[in-house]
Every structure is written in C-alpha cells, then in structure tokens.
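Q: My labmate handed me this sequence with no annotations at all. I'd like to see what the chain might look like in three dimensions before we decide whether it's worth expressing. Could you predict it?
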Amino acid sequence: MFALFTDFGWQGPYVGQLKAALWQRAPGIPVVDLLHDAPAMDPRAAAYLLEPFSRELPEGTVTVAVVDPGVGTDRAGCVIHADERWYVGPVNGLFEFVVRRASDWATWRLPDAPAEAAPTFHGRDVFAPAAASLLQGDRSALSQRLDERPGEEWPDDVPRVLYLDHYGNAMTGIRGSMVSDQAILEAGELRFRGARTFADSPVDQPFWYRNSSGLVEIAINGGRAADTLGLAPGSRVRLIRP
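A: Here is what I predict for the chain of 242 residues:
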C-alpha cells in the first residue's frame, strides 16, 4: 500500500499527478491519502504530524511525504525504513519524528534527480518512482547510507497550533502522553481544562483532549474552537501544569 502526506492541497492537479506516477509504475496498488493540507512549506511543523498520522499504517506501507520548500535545490532525497514501514521524501527534517520515535530505523540517500525530472515536482518525478520500486521489492536505490538529520535538535513537543480540522478543532504539537489530566491549557486569552471526550464538556465551552493521534487538541462542544478562540496554524498555546 502507498500512503500520501503532502502540502499540495486538495484542489488542483498535483495529487492526481502524484497518484498517476505511482500507478504507472505499480498498477492497482491501493493509495491512501493521509493528508494533503499539511502545514504549507513548513517541514518542521509537518514533522510533528507525519509521525502520529502514519503510526497505524500496516507494515510494509510506503509513505510518500512531500513538504518541500527546497525542491530543485541541492537538498537530498531519502528513503527511510522505520518499524517495518517505508518513507520516501526530502531530507529537510520532515521525517525527524518518524526516526526519533522508531525502535529500529535506517536511512539512505536517493540518487540525484534525473535530468528529465521537473525541478519543481520531485514528488512526482523522483519520490513516486522510488516509492513504486520499493513496493515492488527493488532495493537498488539503497546503496548510500545517510546520517544527516536536519531536525535532530528540534524539541519533542511544540506548544503551537499545527493544524485545524474540518470542525474547527485545533491540533497542537504537544503529545497527550506528556500532559496530566489536571493540566490547564491557555489559548486565545482563555484558560480551560481537559475532557476525555466532547460530551464530557459543557456545550459551547472550550476544552482540550487527547485526540486519536495522541496529540493535544483544542475543541468546543458544539462549536468551532478556531473561530471562537481566534486560533490559526502557528498560534501559541500555553500548558499550565498543576
């Protein structure tokens, strides 16, 4: 199975072209869209989402991840094998938490982009072909080990909003496992407590909860937290520990 994680957006031709490149080389293999509105041009923010979003993928899945503002430069491409799953994409920190939280991993540098590759679309012309080859058992690209980790110094958690979902809930870069049930969160000039689920919080009141990906998320029972609290990607939140 292929999985896709990009900042291409759901509109326009790019996701379709990426899928076509995969199916041209690996016909009939299922493709799962994990996310196509990842933090745009921000591999650091996206890295905090890629690991939890891909954690439940079946072993053997090849994830093509593209949040790549340096496309067409001398930044390298890579293949990562982490906990029996494969990842293909740019060397820019996007895979930092996949590697950091894996029990077993290895990284290889991809060969340089071929001359015919579009310099602004390595997702289609470089990463998709490499992913298809991997899924078909071709390991010829795995000849040069890679030690470079651009995001190695990034903190394990980031107290910011990283993503707004369809409901106006605000997903943060804080792992729920690091937060006590009694913790208070401050966002949008309000302080509020946590709840296990929506029905445990009064209607129209903000609360935080541990979402299904294991991250702290801000919500309002029956409302849109992003609108009510004025939250957007990049908004700071403050964790007040009891």
